[in-house]
Write a structure and sequence with these properties.
about 250 residues, about 25% strand
C-alpha cells in the first residue's frame, strides 16, 4: 500500500492547494509530507509517542477547538480506529468550513493485527460516510470486484468545488506516479497459474497497476468519472469488523 499512498498523496498535494495547518492522524507510511507540503504547518498526532509525533491523542477525542484545522490527513487511520464513526465526527468538528480531508483505507488487503487493524469499506461505503462533504474525489486500486485500497479527498462546504481541470491534472499525476509493472516472467507465471487454477487467483497481481477515480460535486458539472477501466461503483456494503469478515 505504501507506493499507492505515496502516489495518491503526492498527486493530491501537487493538484490542490490544501489549507493549513495540516493535521496528520496516525503513521504516515513512507510519505515525506514535509517535502510535499513545504510551506504548511504539519502537526502529527498519534495514539502513542514516537519519532515525529507532536501530540499523543486519540482520533476519537481530539484536543482541538471547533473549526481550527485546515486539512486532515488520515492515511489508513480509520481502518485502525476502534469507533471510526466518532473519529470521522471529530475530524469534521475540528475542520474549518473551508477545510479538506484526505483519507486512505485498505479493502482487500492483509490484516495487520499488530497495528490494531479493524475495518474495511467498499468505495461506495466510504463515499456514503463522507456524503456530508459536498465536493468529493473518490478512488480505488486493484480489481474492480475486490479493490486492494480506496481513498477519498473530501472538501467542506466553503471550500471551492473540485474543477474539471484539477480532476484531469490529478489523474495525469496519478498515472505518472503510480506504476507497479510486472516483469515478463511474473506476467507469464501469473497467466499460467490463472489458466490452471482460475483467473481470480492472480487478479490482484495482474491488475495491481489498475486504478480508477470519480468526482462528485464538481464545479460546472454534476459528476464526472474516469477510469482505468471505467469509473463505476461497487455494490454498497457497510463497514464491518474484521472478525466478522474472517468468520464469513
Amino acid at each position: 500500500m505504501n507506493l499507492l499512498v505515496q502516489a495518491v498523496t503526492r498527486a493530491i498535494a501537487e493538484t490542490f492547494d490544501l489549507p493549513g495547518p495540516i493535521l496528520v492522524l496516525g503513521p504516515t507510511p513512507d510519505v515525506d509530507l514535509k517535502r510535499l507540503f513545504p510551506l504548511k504547518e504539519l502537526i502529527h498526532v498519534d495514539r502513542a509517542p514516537g519519532l515525529g509525533v507532536d501530540l499523543v491523542a486519540d482520533v476519537e477525542d481530539l484536543p482541538y477547538v471547533d473549526g481550527w484545522v485546515g486539512t486532515v490527513l488520515a492515511l489508513g487511520t480509520f481502518a485502525r480506529t476502534r469507533q471510526f464513526w466518532r473519529g470521522l465526527a471529530e475530524v469534521r468538528r475540528i475542520l474549518r468550513p473551508d477545510g479538506a480531508l484526505l483519507a486512505t483505507c485498505p479493502f482487500h488487503a492483509p490484516i495487520r493485527h499488530q497495528s490494531g487493524d479493524r475495518w474495511r469499506w467498499t468505495p461506495e461505503a466510504l463515499d456514503e460516510l463522507l456524503s456530508a462533504y459536498p465536493s468529493r474525489l473518490l478512488g480505488a486500486h486493484g480489481p474492480l470486484g475486490s479493490p486492494e485500497n480506496i481513498w477519498a479527498l473530501a472538501m467542506r462546504e466553503r471550500r471551492p468545488a473540485i474543477t474539471p481541470r484539477q480532476f484531469e491534472r490529478y489523474q495525469r499525476l496519478m498515472t505518472h506516479y503510480f506504476r507497479q509493472r510486472l516483469s515478463w516472467g511474473q506476467h507469464l507465471a501469473c497467466r499460467l497459474i490463472g489458466w490452471l487454477a482460475g483467473p481470480q487467483l492472480c487478479a490482484p497481481i495482474l491488475e495491481r497497476d489498475r486504478w480508477w477515480a470519480t468526482c462528485h460535486g464538481m464545479a460546472n458539472a454534476a459528476q464526472i468519472g474516469s477510469v482505468r477501466p471505467e469509473a463505476t461503483f461497487l455494490e454498497p456494503v457497510a463497514a464491518y469488523p474484521l472478525e466478522r469478515r474472517q468468520a464469513a
